[in-house]
Give the backbone structure.
Amino acid sequence: RFTPDIEPVGIDEAFIDITGSFHLFGTPLETCKKIKETIKKELNLTASIGLAPNKMTAKIASDIQKPDGLVVVTNETLLSFLHPLPVGKLWGVGEKTRKELERFGIKTIRDIAKKDVKTLVFLFGKNGEHLWCLANGIDERKVELEETAKSISNEHTFEKDTLDKDVLKDTLMYLSEKVSRRLRKSQFKGRTITLRIRFEDFSTFTRSTTIKAPSNFVNDLYEACISSLGQFNLNKKAVRLLGVKASNLVDAASPSDLFSDSSSEKKRENLQKALDKIIDKFGEGSIARRSN
């Protein structure tokens, strides 16, 4: 509603670039106020906003006055805002990096900014230069628009490595169900189905199958993965992880195959929709398929 330039970074957080649209709502500050007002009016939720010249500073500013804040940082106040803050506020500085910085007497963002960049590179490698740039208010990262999903996948790591073929097949069926359900929820079909397998020695392999027609049916995914599983000798090394991925995605509304039996395809779709409704109502454990 306020800009098409949106980069989600979590279930309840996003970067938005209002550079090209704020004039439609007044000033940048007025635009932020209207966003907060709209969220409160329509969802009865508070929201915190950081308005700043770059992504990192906006992220920090949005956290300063939670849960109902609006913090504005301008180009003129950028460094005076950043420099007194503890170094852990820098985007990308986790607990381990913070402790390492403090070991060298670096406790605030100002401390990083005052350091010679070559010293930081010597101490922290390429990341040292990145930290110096951020501490000086330099962050050229753009708001990246959310892309259409390129693949949908699920994996399972066994609590104990297994040689049991029935367990492997049941797990592949479970994963195929998860992926096929997510495909339908996202309105996609996949043409390429990939099996990922990791053995007890952590050697990891992938095998991909391009199926005749794009599909989001569990049986199509499962059969492709079982075929790929047959390429491995499962008698010598136990399996640690299995994964199923659908890629080469197309819109689910597009026809699967011009030469397929459309009535048969429709029956499969109707059956799957009925099963999905049952699972939506009673949970994923309400229906169980058996692997062959």
